[in-house]
Amino acid sequence: MGNNVKVYKGNVIFTKTPQEFEQLEGGYIVVEDGKVKEVAQNLPEQYKDAEVVDYGDKLIIPGFIDLHLHAPQFPNRGLGLDKELLPWLETYTFPEEAKFKDTEYAKKVYSRLVRELWKYGTTRSVVFSTIHKDSTKVLMDLFIEAGLGAYVGKVNMNRNSSPDLTEDTQESLKITEELLQEYSDKSPLVKPIITPRFVPSCTAELMKDLGDLAKKYDAPVQSHLSENRGEIEWVKELHPDSKNYADVYDKLGLFGQQPTVMAHCVHVTDDEIKLMADNGVFVAHSPESNYNLSSGIAPIRKFLEAGVNVGFATDISGGHAISMMDVIAGAMKGSKMRWVYLEEEYASLSVPEVFYLATKSAGRFFSKVGKIGSFEEGYEFDALVIDDESISDLNPRSLPERLQRFLYLGDDRNIVERFVSGKNLPEPKVY
Ligand code: GUN
Ligand code: FE
């Protein structure tokens, strides 16, 4: 037995596959150097002298992963949601993002955001900041201080934006590269990610050079794809020679040439789905945002059948709630509405499936950082301890039933501990 071993006991539940839960009532998780060594019903003999933390009747589940959110939009949660994407960006989003020129403001907002992610058990996230270098550094440093895992991207935009958010192309690239240099190896948990906002806000020249930077620094890429019909029409006008929206990114080296996550993908064509599957592009499915901004319901079952990687996301503040539990329940509801109204041939999503998508499936986007999203051997011990007593009833319930109810009725008050890479994280400081 190594020195750095800890054992956690409780009702362990997670998903190795989308089909079913792995579950151990009163089971043990052996953690060595922050990684899961073993999950067992009985404590293996060689660990009998290890320290055991007993969580009694509580649940132990993998931490949640949010594959797409906008940190500077945290103050806008719940606002402007009677608009569609493009007017919403103009009236609410861009004016708020412009404020992050001020790093003091950034530190106040971002420290509150990071505390909220901690509260709701989002142990890893993939985040847009703004165009501003110093505020982006503030955000990355706050994630590092909190011990939460994140990819954080300084946003690039050099066309069709408000004047105070329109960058000079060379300056945009220079700042992006400086952040890649400074942060690629600064922390094992928090890394930079290349972040062209979306096709309408970036010239082909900028996007091509960002693709080159992603390659040079072996950095992942995030952006938006086919969220809203007006947006898609606009991309067609801007790039009449491209086959489709995805093709614009693909030709510029931003579509799976490096690990890539595209938010939304609500209205993608069959050709685009095939390209996503072939290139290993991840979809950050953001159901709450897609309902709020009248974007639509993404065809998740179709993605899964085509072999596309899928995870879930809040898309704060298109999505109003920071809780991944709300997003998971929202994804289930949307899949049922698609089945009822649009396509009986694609079954709605099951509970183990949505839990798998929110944990192990999304976790594969972090493969350069480690194995994330499960309790199989070698996975980072990213875990939540759930006290569901306040939402229990008088009947005995199975672990999958208790987990399901937590996803629908639970909130931050039910989450009593949060671990990332084996470290039990204290509440982050707010400035
Ligand atoms: N497309 C481009 N920018 C944004 C954004 O900030 N939010 C959403 N939901 N879609 C976008
Ligand atoms: Fe978004």
Structure description:
- The chain contains 13 helices and 17 strands.
- The chain folds into two domains: 5-63 and 373-424, Urease, subunit C, domain 1 (Roll); 64-366, TIM Barrel.
- The model has no long low-confidence stretch (mean pLDDT 97).
- It is globular, with a radius of gyration of 21 Å.
- It has a seven-stranded mixed beta sheet. Strands 5-6-7-9 form a four-stranded parallel beta sheet.
- Helix 3 links the parallel strand 6 and strand 7 (149-153).
- It has helices at residues 85-98, 103-119, 133-146, 169-183, 204-216, 229-238, 245-251, 270-279, 287-292, 300-306, 324-341, 351-363, 399-409; strands spanning 5-14, 22-32, 35-40, 51-62, 64-70, 122-128, 149-153, 155-156, 190-192, 195-196, 221-225, 260-264, 282-285, 309-312, 383-386, 415-420, 423-424.
- The chain is an alpha/beta fold.
- The chain starts with a strand and ends in a 7-residue tail after the last strand.
- Residues 68, 70, 224, 263, 315, 318 line the site of fe (iii) ion (FE).
Stretches where pLDDT is under 50 for at least 5 consecutive residues are none
Beta-strand residue fraction: 15-25%
Spatial strand arrangement across the major sheet? 3-2-1-4-15-16-17
Shape annotation = globular
Mean pLDDT across every amino acid position: 97
Q: DSSP helix count? A: 13
The rounded distance between the terminal residues' Cα atoms is: 42 Å
Q: Do you know the CATH topology of the largest domain?
A: TIM Barrel
The computed structural class is alpha/beta
CATH superfamily of the largest domain: Metal-dependent hydrolases
Number of domains: 2
The radius of gyration is 21 Å
CATH hierarchy, class of the largest domain: Alpha Beta
Helix content: 25-40%
Number of separate strands: 17
Q: What is the level-2 CATH architecture name of the largest domain?
A: Alpha-Beta Barrel
Order of SSEs, N→C?
EEEEEHHEHEEHEEHEHHEHEHHEHHEHEE
Biggest beta sheet summary: 7 strands, mixed
Bound molecules: guanine, fe (iii) ion
InterPro entries: Amidohydro-rel (IPR006680), Guanine_deaminase (IPR014311), Metal-dep_hydrolase_composite (IPR011059), Metal_Hydrolase (IPR032466), Metallo-dep_hydrolases (IPR051607)
GO cellular component, one term: cytosol
GO molecular function, one term: guanine deaminase activity
Cofactor: Zn(2+)
